[in-house]
Amino acid sequence: MADYEERHIYNGRLPLKWQPKFWKRQKDDVLAVWPSGEEEFINFRKEYLNQKEKRIQWSGEYEENGSLAVLDMVCTRVEGRIITRVHRKGTHTLKFASSRTNRPRREALGSLKGLVNRAIRLSDKEEDLAKEVELLSDAFILEGFSVEEVDRTVSEYLAKKMKNEVEDQSQEEEENVAQPEEDRYVVTSLYVPGVSEKLRWQLKKLGVDLVFKRGQTLGSMICNVKEKRTAERQKGVIYKIPCQHCQECYIGETCRHWGTRKAEHQGYVRR
User: Cross-referenced PANTHER family, in alphabetical order (predicted)?
Assistant: First the structure.
């Protein structure tokens, strides 16, 4: 998919009306912000995306009433900001774990903790979090877990999570407390055995830090063992290829080695 995006999305040849304002991919799911509206995106998908690679066919879900399902969450626009909650398809069976498993009981209930943690991370509203936790609890009870152990697992995990958040917040506040800074100066000097240590000690009393640096040696002046990186080995480059037959040029961008991308261009030309 990365190669597909580089050849068909980031190629610099898309018409302005088809250029997305935002394009972020997770595996084979893409979240895109389209400036031209839903109808134009449908045309772009049918006339462009689905014509490039027959083995890659695109479908789309669109924002409805300010909400859009993305992976396992629903994003909703509310008063200029985006809030999220857990998304679950209508075909979901709500079967997460069975009480008849051969695994230890605490380990089987560990999946409940993981699902509650996901609900905490994805739910911006307290009511959405409460609904999700209630649904998860009911699902585990229906699978044969007792009400007591489900309630205990959820309450203990929520209490632990809240305690950790309070501790993290307190630690962050302590770190942000402004500490008085001392006026100190730094001096660099070549290291001279037997002298530099005494000089550092005397300067430290005066509020001056002495930092030693290595001077030039004969070896450093005539020998450089570090291999220089050639242009072909550089990553994350923007390149320009002029046409040999006209005044046009091609401008592209790649996150891979420039030598790899150049070889691909040369292969396309030879075809």
Answer: REVERSE TRANSCRIPTASE (PTHR21301), REVERSE TRANSCRIPTASE DOMAIN-CONTAINING PROTEIN (PTHR21301:SF10)
